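Table 4 source record.
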Amino acid sequence: MSIGIWISLIAYFALMLGIGVYAWRKSTSNSEEYMLGGRDLPPSVAALSAGASDMSGWLLLGLPGALYASGLVEAWIGIGLFIGALFNWIIVAPRLREQTERYSNSLTIPAFLANRFPTHATALRMVSAIIIVVFFAVYTASGLVGGGKLYASAFGGDYMVGVCITLGIVLVYTVIGGFLAVSLTDFVQGFIMMLALIIMPAVILYMGQGNGVDQAAARLSDMQEGYLSMTHGLTAIGWLSAMAWGLGYFGQPHIIVRFMAVRSVADVPKARNIGMGWMAISLLGAIGVGIFGRAYVERNGITVDDPETIFILLSNLLFHPLVTGFLYAALLAAIMSTVSSQLLVSASSISEDFYRIVLNRTASDRALVNVGRLATVLVGAVAIWIARDPGSEVLGLVSNAWAGFGAAFGPLVILALTWPRMNGAGALAGLVVGAGTVIFWIYSGLAASTGLYEIIPGFVAAFVAIVVVTLITRDAGEYRAK
């Protein structure tokens, strides 16, 4: 591999580790600093951290790969995500920032639920912590699959070595620097990702013999009927399933925890505008990589065995090694930003919602920080085991985990923040029914046979369960305003 690529990658790794050391020196003295950065994130850092931790390798691997293979109809997933993210910033962000601080300065989502519904506190913390760890192990595995594919496709190395290297680098800065390190690295990684997704489509069209938008469109239209149509072959269930990805935002702990850490409620609108602008540019860029990348490949007779590696392939073919290294760093940024966030949220739940509640109620802040660090490593080890199959699809793993969180926590978070009447029994019912429905829908084969994305039945069932159980049970001490 060219020395130029190594120079870019080494510079990137050094920057990430340097941020980790800075965060360690600045913000790891107690649990609030290690897990929420002291609730002092500027709007720009909170916005890009939420976006980068959200998109993961899916943005540079999964979405371009889906568009490359099936055409513009796959863009509906991006549209659904954009709408969902916008409503998440409007409905959840300001309320969660205010209420998590008001309810006993809650540092995790399970802790907020326990403080919001005290008569069911232990059960809520246990169940929600289990759901977080299980689904985040799967979600983290999707990022490690992306790292393994990059190492195997770009460097010709062993897939599992790539998986282990990806996790190892993330563990170093996450274990050392905690939430502040994760947020600051996300901020930098978000910029890198956006720049890469601006550069690559432009180069494909105007420097990579793509000969502009018109000729690319003509070639794609000739190649496959309806390839550039957003409705060709689209069924009502298919459209609903694509748009339903947006429902998942309300229940993603690694995203909404950024709302808890933003500097103040007054900063939320500014963070929202920055975050949504970043997301719009990045999604359009990812769509361009998939669509225009297909035009370039067809024009030049190139064989692509795995559509999800189109970004990696074009990085090698079209750019100077120094730029190729930067683009590889963008892919690693997408992967690592999400993996680090997921590992930290999982570790926070294990230390705050299991260790402190079950094993050591008098644990010191320093002990909880150390338990969180150990838990980060353990969850990473489980994710490696899940990611061991090189044939795993990034988009498939992400979709399962996204649905699990969206259904289990989405209706629960929305109603807990907006419905004073809601009680702990309803909250517990929503968690169990939402997660259980998603798991049943996947493993019963209904997802495959009906084509209906599992988040839809899971979200609806959880919402109904919360409302019904709350209305038939009454605990005035829980929902009275604090």
